[in-house]
Amino acid sequence: MSTNRTITDLKGTFNLHNGVAMPYLGLGTYQSDNDQQVVDAVKSALEIGYRHIDTASAYKNEEGVGKGIKESNVSREEIFITSKVWNADQGYEATLKAFDESLNRLGLDYLDLYLVHWPVPEKYAETWKALEHLYSEKKIRAIGVSNFLKHHLEEILKDCEVVPMVNQMEFHPHLVQQDLLDFCKENTIQYESWSPFMQGKVLELDLCNDLAKKHKKSVAQIILRWNLQKGVVAIPKSVHAKRIKSNADIFDFELSKEDIAFLDGLENGQRTGPDPDNFNF
Ligand code: NDP
Prior knowledge:
With 281 residues, this protein is of the alpha/beta class. It has helices at residues 36-48, 62-71, 92-106, 124-136, 150-159, 178-186, 201-204, 209-215, 219-229, 241-247, 257-264; strands at 13-15, 21-23, 27-28, 52-54, 80-85, 111-116, 140-146, 166-170, 190-194, 233-234. Strand 4, helix 2 and strand 5 (80-85) form a beta-alpha-beta unit. Helix 1 (36-48) crosses helix 2 (62-71). The protein is globular, with a radius of gyration of 18 Å. The mean pLDDT is 96. NADPH dihydro-nicotinamide-adenine-dinucleotide phosphate is lined by residues 28-30, 54, 117, 146-147, 168, 194-200, 203, 220, 235-240, 243, 246-247, 273.
């Protein structure tokens, strides 16, 4: 299934329901060290042409991400920056505080996107209200959630003032969750994938080698192109400039409907990370 949305180049965007343009390819930074490693990764990405960086307070590298942004030659307004409120900081007041702390660490005065990192039971509804408040104060251009299954989203949709703009989920050929994708689309919630490479594991499997050969592309490039053609924003992580560059070299080919159906058909419910209905952190 491909979407009507056109895929053009590395600076291309999908529009969120409030009109904010979200670059559909970004750099992930989970497990990138908060030292020269993440500074260099962010600088390389921005130099190559990425305009979207994903971090979180839980990654403990917001300072490095902020430094990379500052040391780049790209102006703040051109970059889409995401962070997330960690589980231990959820609840109304604690979230407001955590948001300020993230901004301080990043050295920024606003975020493009702030996400509820996980649906902590008994807490996430209050956390969402804090995000709505920050959004109304124009400290964030868009607000969203992460790791929210359909029933979590339904709970939020029941009495929210602002419908979440984004749901960031584990998504790769072994975990497609098409029903959830469709539900998000019906509710104008942009789907965003984390661990598009299953943290590298999917690149070692034999799954898409034929497709890679057919298109003269790498397996990583096939998978990222599949994300975008399904209307999913992708944030592959790498700390190597060469890989960051090759992960963005996905704008000179197109997957057919059959290619997409093949990749969709690899779904087997296999997770790399925790189950959003059963986590204990
Ligand atoms: P990915 O699926 O993006 O895989 C990253 C791994 O793949 C790294 O080991 C990287 O190694 C390697 N890699 C990257 N590009 C290539 C390539 N072209 N060829 C070979 N190997 C490659 O995993 P992540 O879990 O990092 O997910 C992406 C991002 O999603 C995170 O960084 C984070 O920003 C976000 N995330 C969000 C979560 C949430 O709960 N909301 C949970 C997990 C992630 P190397 O760096 O050495 O190049």
